[in-house]
Amino acid sequence: MKYLLSDNDLYIHYSSLNILYWSIVDIVDSAIMNSEVAMQLGSDYHKFLKNDLYKLAKLEIESFQELFYNFNYPNIKKESVSEFIQELTSIFDEYIDTPEFHFGLESLRQILKEANKKNSLLFRMDGKEPVLINNFLEFYLRAIYLFNNSNHIFDNEATISKMLAKYKIIDEGKEIKNYAFVDSQGDLFVQASDVFVGLMGKFTNYINTNSRDKIISDFNSLSEKQLKNIDSLINLLDKSHKKNIGFLHWIDAYEEQAKINLICEIRRNHT
User: Fold this and answer.
1) What is the residue-level pLDDT of the chain in tens, covering all 271 positions?
2) At CA 113, angle to CA 111 and CA 114, rounded to 5?
3) Among the listed residues 86, 56, 29, the one whose alpha carbon sits nearest the alpha carbon of residue 255
4) How far apart are CA 95 and CA 103, in angstroms?
5) How many Å is the maximal CA-CA distance in the chain?
6) Which ranges in 130-172 belong to alpha helices (H)?
7) What phi and psi, each to the nearest 5 degrees, are found at residue 220?
8) Using an 8 Å Cβ cutoff, are 52 and 98 in contact?
9) How far apart are CA 24 and CA 26, in angstroms?
10) Burial letters for 15-30: b for 16+ Cβ neighbours within 10 Å, e otherwise?
11) Pairing mode, if any, of strands 14-17 and 248-251?
12) How many CB atoms lie within 10 A of CB 149?
């Protein structure tokens, strides 16, 4: 018997995090905090700068890795801020005069110059460890407080469970206790969730590691069965988004999010 999510009153609810994007956005946010003009230009402008820095980081991943390692990023010493900015903006040189990158990288370079004058980048400085991401607690907290009328069943994560136990989440004077951690081996629903997470992981990895042209080429070569499976996934994503925009929590660059729209457009044009 086939049991299709798309044919039943079920929805998906997940968080997707691009680790590279998440790791570098603090550079833009911290630089903007040092620029009154940039702060007034709004979130779309800020995301545009983050997107260009992300695209550059993908092209120059080894240079970024070396830079972060040498300066203990994000725990940069205050006396090293100026040198860090100079090293970072030197990576811009090869790309800054190209049509694709000129506006974004030149804007970011000017904003970083202001930060350099103040000798300040406002992300964690003078820390001890070069840890980009300490944990993913905030993604658990988001589900708990955003959907506080729901019951949340999480796969066992001992570290997260201990951290959450230290929080007292209050809504309208009442403590929220709407979550539990269970062993996936004894819960079919968590097992099904694991399967779906694995599928979405491969899907987002494919998007983040392939160009738009490669995606178009790949989709032109898919079999009918493969296309039907893709359509089922897209329809499920769309159905869940229409049900509640908070169900799909996607932290990624415009560059990658646009590829999702590209895939949807490809399928609409072939159905």
Assistant:
1) 455 666 777 888 989 999 999 988 888 888 888 777 777 787 888 899 999 999 999 999 999 999 999 998 888 888 888 899 999 999 999 999 999 999 999 999 998 988 787 766 666 555 556 677 778 899 999 999 899 989 999 998 899 999 998 988 888 888 888 999 998 888 888 888 889 899 999 999 999 999 999 999 999 999 999 998 898 888 888 899 999 999 999 899 999 989 988 998 887 776 6
2) 70
3) 56
4) 11
5) 67
6) 137-146, 158-165
7) -70, -15
8) no
9) 5
10) ebebebbebbbbbbeb
11) parallel
12) 7
pLDDT for the residue 192? 86
Contact (CB, 8 A) for 94 and 155? no
125 secondary structure, DSSP code: B
Strand residues in the chain grouped as ranges (E) = 14-17, 152-155, 170-171, 174-175, 179-182, 248-251
Using only the alpha carbons of the chain, give its radius of gyration.
Answer: 22
Handedness of CA 185, 189, 190, 195 (dihedral sign): positive
Cβ(119)–Cβ(85) under 8 Å?
no
Helix pair 212-220, 254-268: axis angle to 10 deg: 30
> Which residues in 95-197 belong to E strands, given as ranges?
152-155, 170-171, 174-175, 179-182
Paired tokens of 99: 């049509």
What gap in Å lies between CA 66 and CA 17, rounded to an integer? Answer: 23
- What's at 49, amino acid-wise? L
CA dist 141 and 170 (Å) reads: 12
Residue 245, sorted as left (phi over 0), alpha (psi -120 to 50) or beta, turns out to be alpha
